[in-house]
Amino acid sequence: MKRTVKNALVLSLALLLLFSFGACGGSGGDTYKSESASSAASQSGNQSADMEDMPESEAGFDEGAETGGTETVRPQDRKLITTVNLQAETKEYDTFMSWLESHVAGTGGYIESSDMYAYNERERSCDLTLRIPADKLNGFLQEMGETCNILQRSVTEEDVTLNYVDAESYRDALLVEQERLMELLEEADNLTDIMSIEDRLTTVRYQLQNYESTLRVYENQINYSTVHLSVREVVELTEPEPESWGSRAVQGMKDNARSIGRFLQELGLFLVTHIPTLLLLGVIALIILLATSRRRREARARRKQQKELIQSMRDQKNTEEQK
């Protein structure tokens, strides 16, 4: 019986290796190591297409889409992880943030993280990480373009098809081996064989959990695209760079006028907010002026007497010369 169990174990391992090589044909004999969900995702092959500062129509936007109803057409046989980076600005910060929260929830997505900054009442910003269903991504991006002013946009697609298929094949092979080991464990009547089978079964279950965790991470990243959004509040929206000389001159004058207006506004705000300090400095200056006024009057009187004395001496000298 002991030899039968050992032969069965050897046969099970041989079947596992044969199944694994068949599932990973063409891989050149490379060993797939499952360490964790994150490490497996980092080993995926990249097939990225960065599109920075492109028009909306070139970055996957469907101009004729209805609100929240546009679905992204994705190849059914490919496993793609899509990441979008957006920089935007808006004049209505509170309204936009309320719209964003409700619209993300309406697409079936969620806000993964949010960092808000408030420099003052009119200078606020927020950095968000959004998870949007992949089939609703284009509609969401179009809505974003209509609701705020997009300054920069980049889209990256990572193809993890090979890694996903490999992980799936190894998982299926481990499930077959686990089932076979359970059958052998029921048939084993020797303590040594039972311990050997259980030891191998523990290893198989550990590896199986790793591959299943890897597949769950892949499924989440594939089904939910990641959108990194940085939005800030502005008084005036950034306008496209003018092309002609006249347009540039007009734009320059507008910018200069806005700069002067902001300077005068800040100057007025500075004077109003620093009235207590200015009053205190004025009182101190008045006290110093009153304290030194007597000395200044005496100094002026002495200078006047000296001038009169000098003039008297000159007149006396002229009189003597005439005689």
UniProtKB/TrEMBL annotation:
The chain crosses the membrane at residues 267-292. The keyword Nucleotide-binding does not apply. It comes from the Bacteria. The keyword Coiled coil applies. Residues 167-194 form a coiled coil. Residues 314-323 have a biased composition (Basic and acidic residues). Residues 50-65 have a biased composition (Acidic residues). Keywords: Coiled coil, Membrane, Signal, Transmembrane, Transmembrane helix. Residues 32-76, 301-323 are annotated as: Disordered. Residues 78-288 form the DUF4349 domain. Residues 34-49 have a biased composition (Low complexity). Pfam families: DUF4349. Residues 1-25 form the signal peptide. This is DUF4349 domain-containing protein. It comes from Acutalibacter muris.
